[in-house]
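Before our next group meeting I need something from you. Please put the record directly below this note.
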Amino acid sequence: MNRKIRVGAVNYLNTKPLIYGFKDGEMKDEVDLVVDYPSKIAAMLANDEIDVGLVPVAIIPELKEHYIISDYCIGCDGEVGSVCLFSEVPLEKIERVLLDYQSRSSVDLLKILIKHFWKIDPALISTSEDYRKDINGTTAGLIIGDRALEQRKISKYKYDLGLEWKKFTGLPFVFAAWISNKKLDQSFIEAFNKANLTGLQQIDKVVNENPYPFFDLKKYYTSYINYYLDEKARKGLHLFLSILNTDNTQNPN
């Protein structure tokens, strides 16, 4: 490819370790990096506006061509901390759920848990702007990312989707992975993996450069987020996509 590879990443605290190497100048001659929220990066990848994206895994079936190019991801093996259903009442009393517009994978995971694990039937309401003030009474809200870490201090009830998936399946969950929409040279992929690892090996530096009063970021990066797309994580990913495909086939609308 006779140009830089266009790479899109998510601009959340949980991605800071993965993009630290790129921000620090690694692959500056090979990569053009853009950051945005997950669903925007996903749309850019689908529209070939970027070549690689750290995208919600729920979009994988919609891509004409896709390759998981990295050994690293945004996932968890139990509690994730930053993807939660927040409510003022217990699960069984929730009547409406406001859905976070920023991530497809989290919304699809929530729908799977509602149907197959919790077995409740609230109305699901799409959103297009910040709705945290509307979480009240029997109206709950799915919140992801940095805003979820803040909401943990506000809502009476929080249902961590990573933990609930682990209870349901016994497996890790992968929220986002590095996906390309075309084949890339192996030499690029190896360098890309190395750049991802840079920040993971310097967590203290990442924490110091991103002061955050709402949550212990070192604990978040080392005890909540799982960055390694190992065999167990891939098994969890495949199960999620299998359930998602079955549900979408049964309920195409």
Remarks:
- The chain has two domains: 5-75+172-230, 83-169.
- The first helix runs from residue 16 to 23.
- The domain at 5-75+172-230 is CATH 3.40.190.10 (D-Maltodextrin-Binding Protein; domain 2).
